[in-house]
Design the sequence.
C-alpha cells in the first residue's frame, strides 16, 4: 500500500531523528546509512527514498535544526528605530536558554562543534559547518553596526574584532558545557558571561 503524505513525512522525521542520534553517538564520518536506517527502524530502501546519501541527510538535518538557531538570532525585524543592542542581548540569552533545555538542540550543537570531522571527502558537510558559524556571526555583526549607529557602542568599535570576541566566548562556553554539562548551569552562566562581555564592548575596553 502506498504511504500517505503524512506517513512519508513521519518516516522522514524518524530518519532525521535517527541520524542525529547516530551522528551524536559515533560522529559524522563514522556514521553509516545502515546504522541510521536501523536506528529509525526502516529499510535502506526507505532511507534512499527520502535521501540520496549521507551528505543529503546531514544537509536536511542541518536545515531543520539550524533554522531554530537562526530564528532566535533573527535580526530581520530590526530597523534604525529599535534598540539593536538590547535585542542582541535578549536573543543571545534566549539562544543559550533553549540550548540548555532542548536535548535535541544540545546534541545538534555537539555534532556541529565536536563530532563533525573535516576531511577531503566530506566537503559538503564541511561547507555546512562553516555556514553554521558564519550565519550567527553575520547577525551579530549587523546588530553591532546598528548599535554603533544608535550610540549604544563607541564609534571607534572594531566590529569584526568585537563580534569575534563575543562569538568566541560563547562558543568556548558552549563547548565546555557540552563536554561537562554537570559542571555548571549553562543558561545562568551564559547570561552573566553575555552581560559582562557586552558591557566590556559597550564601555570600549576592547578598543584600548
Sequence:
Amino acid at each position: 500500500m502506498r504511504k500517505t503524505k503524512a506517513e512519508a513525512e513521519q518516516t522522514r522525521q524518524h530518519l532525521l531523528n535517527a541520524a542525529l542520534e547516530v551522528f551524536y553517538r559515533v560522529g559524522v564520518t563514522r556514521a553509516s546509512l545502515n546504522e541510521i536506517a536501523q536506528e529509525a527502524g526502516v529499510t535502506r530502501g526507505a532511507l534512499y527514498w527520502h535521501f540520496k546519501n549521507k551528505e543529503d541527510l546531514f544537509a536536511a538535518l542541518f536545515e531543520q535544526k539550524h533554522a531554530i538557531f537562526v530564528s532566535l538570532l533573527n535580526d530581520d525585524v530590526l530597523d534604525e528605530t529599535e534598540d539593536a543592542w538590547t535585542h542582541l542581548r535578549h536573543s543571545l540569552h534566549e539562544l543559550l536558554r533553549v540550548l540548555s533545555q532542548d536535548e535535541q538542540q544540545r546534541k545538534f550543537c555537539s555534532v556541529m562543534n565536536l563530532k563533525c570531522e573535516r576531511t577531503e571527502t566530506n566537503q559538503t558537510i564541511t561547507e555546512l559547518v562553516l555556514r553554521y558559524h558564519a550565519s550567527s556571526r553575520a547577525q551579530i555583526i549587523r546588530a553591532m553596526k546598528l548599535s554603533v549607529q544608535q550610540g549604544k557602542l563607541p564609534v571607534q568599535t572594531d566590529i569584526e574584532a568585537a563580534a569575534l570576541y563575543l562569538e568566541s566566548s560563547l562558543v568556548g562556553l558552549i563547548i565546555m558545557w557540552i563536554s561537562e554539562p554537570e559542571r555548571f548551569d549553562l543558561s545562568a552562566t551564559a547570561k552573566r558571561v553575555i552581560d559582562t562581555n557586552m558591557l566590556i564592548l559597550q564601555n570600549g575596553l576592547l578598543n584600548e
